[in-house]
Amino acid sequence: MKIDNSLAAVVTGGASGLGRASAQALAAAGVKVAIFDISEEAGEAFAKEIGGVFCNVDITNEESVEAGFAKAREAHGQERIVVHCAIVAGGGKTVSFDKKTGGYKRTPTEQIAKSAEGIFTASYRIASIAALGMATADPLNEDGERGTIILTSSAAAEDGQIGQVAYGGGKGAVNAMVLPMARDLMDLGIRVNAIMPGTFATPPMLRVKEHAPEVYENLGKAVPFPRRLGNPEEFGSLVLELVRNIYFNGQCIRLDGAIRMPPK
After folding, report:
1. ω into 226 cis (within 30 of 0)
2. Three-state SS string across the chain, please?
3. What homologous superfamily does CATH list for 8-200+232-255?
4. Does the keyword Oxidoreductase apply (predicted)?
């Protein structure tokens, strides 16, 4: 897909972290960007900075998401690029020792369900609503491409750590969705891929750096090469390549410096 100012994009979680880096990269390439986020102040400020539009969107709420797409399309026209980075998730070990009671407890099923909604179901919600809009748009090139959808998975989908049953399971479900969705949408010329980031210097990790610098340093040392956390800009760079290169379809791509973490 040729990237220029004729294209519109939606980036979820675009007010910070990987979403912000994706939105920045797309805007710098000339794309009109709509940011979906619940952080209104940060989102409004960043959208203004990149000449985009902010949409206050809760990815777990169907009406909120549909309203966000309507606002984005009113401002920029039909989006041809969707980058889904937003997430709502919980954590916890399957069974763990509770010091307060002196016994064992399990992570509540409701917490796992919340993560499933905030990771897998939300990914389907964003992708399917976008695809429905793209389906009737004019093709962009001789291949008949109408749009591209980039989901955010995680290295934890294949390499989940202790306490990541909800997160790793949700991201694994995202991976499992990519190929059948790409096949569902092949006749419409809509591509679907996922990026599987490793440990990146996003706001949660930067808080670790502030409060536990030695932990942050060790996280970087665990990466084979380069021996550091990923920069969000490196995620944004891959987003641009997945948009440009039409032969990327149905893929889940690790972006992790070759990290393969043993359980700890």
Report:
1. yes
2. CCCCCCCEEEEECCCCHHHHHHHHHHHHCCCEEEEEECCHHHHHHHHHHHCCEEEECCCCCHHHHHHHHHHHHHHHCCCCEEEECCCCCCCECCEEEECCCCEEEECCHHHHHHHHHHHHHHHHHHHHHHHHHHCCCCCCCCCCCCEEEEEECCCHHHHCCCCEHHHHHHHHHHHHHHHHHHHHCHHHCEEEEEEEECCECCHHHHHHHHHCHHHHHHHHHCCCCCCCCECHHHHHHHHHHHHHCCCCCCCEEEECCCCCCCCC
3. NAD(P)-binding Rossmann-like Domain (3.40.50.720)
4. yes
- Please name the residue that has the structure tokens 């972290």: 17
Could you give the residue numbers annotated as active site?
A: 167
Give me the residue label for tokens 């949409």.
Answer: 55
- Spatial CA neighbour of 133 closest among 62, 185, 171: 185
The one-letter amino acid code at 179 reads L
pTM of the full structure = 0.94
Question: pLDDT digits over 122-180, tens only?
Answer: 999 999 999 999 999 999 999 999 999 999 999 999 998 899 999 999 999 999 999 99
Tokens of 254: 């690790």
